[in-house]
Amino acid sequence: MSADEQAVRAALDAWHQAIQQLDFPAMAGMWDAAFPGRLVYQPEEYEEPFCTYDDIKEYWGRVPAVVTSVPEWRALSTEVAVVQDVAVAYSRLWTSIRIKDVDKSFDGELRCSYAFRRTPAGWRLIHYHESRLVSVESVVASLTG
Fold first, then answer.
1. FRET pair for 79, CA 20 to 30 Å: which of 11, 86, 109, 138?
2. On the CB side of 124, how many CA atoms lie within 13 Å of its CA?
3. For residue 76, which of 44, 108, 123, 40 has the smallest C-alpha distance?
């Protein structure tokens, strides 16, 4: 494994840990706020992504009103590819999210894609996309039952 891949994997581990701890200042520091292009932050619960650094931080500011804790945010598998100053990654995660005023936790597999850019400060996110693994059988059952 190259030093670049190790560094990207370390950035991913730090990202996952920050999400589990709901550490939004740490998460903000992992993004390339100076990226001249369009950022992409696609949380699973929104139809459209947040595409500016300020919009991403504003979204995070609303999360504590809904999410009380994240008991688990664990990578099941991760693939990383580095090409010069850009890295892409894909992870399957097992997640558990506690939602305000809901007794049962929201558990399940989440798939995430990431893009990082090499900056003088290290590898920083420019793209993050979440999608929940949904059982087709359970969706069909809910629609027909």
1. 138
2. 17
3. 108
In which domain, by residue range, is 114 found?
3-144
For residue 122, the model assigns a pLDDT of 97
Supply the DSSP string of 27-87, one letter for each residue: HHHTB-TT-SS--EEE-TT-SS-B-SHHHHHHHHHHGGGTEEEEEEEEEEEEEEEEETTEE
User: For position 144, what pLDDT does the model report?
Assistant: 78
DSSP string, 96-115: EEEETT-SS-EEEEEEEEEE
- Is residue 130 within 8 Å of 119, Cβ to Cβ? no
Would you state the pLDDT for residue 140? 76
> 131 by DSSP, 3-state: which?
strand
Other C-beta atoms within 10 Å of 5: how many?
Answer: 14
The rounded average pLDDT for each run of 10 residues, N- to C-terminus, in the chain (145 residues) is 96 98 97 96 95 97 96 97 98 96 93 98 97 77 74
Structural domains of the chain, count: 1
pTM: predicted TM-score of the whole model, two decimal places: 0.90
CATH number at residue 120: 3.10.450.50
Let me know: does 72 contact 94? Beta carbons within 8 Å: yes
